[in-house]
Specification:
There is one protein chain. By secondary structure, this protein is of the alpha/beta class. The chain has a single domain, classed as Alpha-Beta Barrel (TIM Barrel), CATH 3.20.20.370. The chain has 9 helices and 7 strands. Strands 1, 2, 3, 4, 5, 6 and 7 form a 7-stranded parallel β-sheet that branches. α3 packs parallel to α4. The radius of gyration is 18 Å and the shape is globular. About 40% of the residues are buried. The chain binds zinc ion. Zinc ion binds next to loops.
Length: about 260
Amino acid sequence: MRDFTMRMYRELCLSLLRNGYETQTVAEFFENPASRVCLIRHDVDSWPSNALKMALIESDLGIHTSYYFRRSPLSVNDSVIKGIVSLGHEIGYHYEDLAATDGDYEAAIKRFKRNLEFFRGYYPVQTIAMHGRPLSPWDSKALWNRYDYREHDIIAEPYLDLDFNVMAYLTDTGNCWDGEKYSVRDHVVSPYKFNVHYSDDLIDLISDGKLPEQFMLNIHPARWNDIWLKWMIRYYVLTVPKYLAKKALKQYRRKRDSI
Ligand SMILES: [Zn+2]
């Protein structure tokens, strides 16, 4: 079966259910964590209609997950967000305010508040997750060195509030499950290391009981496509050049930092 399709996504969801994993939204987990649980965090960077397709697959299986939207025309789609809310999933804000304001902290917190209000027009947003913006020198999480998101009634930022010594973290960055090492910002410090590349490998890990009791899957719906043309565009036009650029950027930063 071709990987990173909606059909494969359904198989992945089914493997969680077959192996006794509960699913919770990020907010639910922070309020009342289940002991054997998979948190599915969707970063809707672009192509929001794919997010709605995933939300429908999940609802069909009785799974609830979290969808983080950027305040960008690439990500926001009114009917998609309303659709996902109506299916009972969580909506969060995929923030990039410090990168968007080129490191201007005051402008960034104002932008953050404005955008949070925008998404709260759809859903009572309680959690946020950083959007990496690999080509920006600014890590938007640094905003929280100066401000506190809890003052804005946010209960959690997964990158900062989850204990990755307990919870394993797997991301589909780069259209594979071991691309984290090439990502500039989508990675966490964790003792877990898995031999996993394809979604089939991930399903095997789940079925063979090789994942811990708690893990998070970070999924970018834009990367999962049934239509060959979209799949090819995503992979060859968007992913491979981006991967090469990120690799070069990482090498450059490593060299620069070692001087
Ligand atoms: Zn993102």
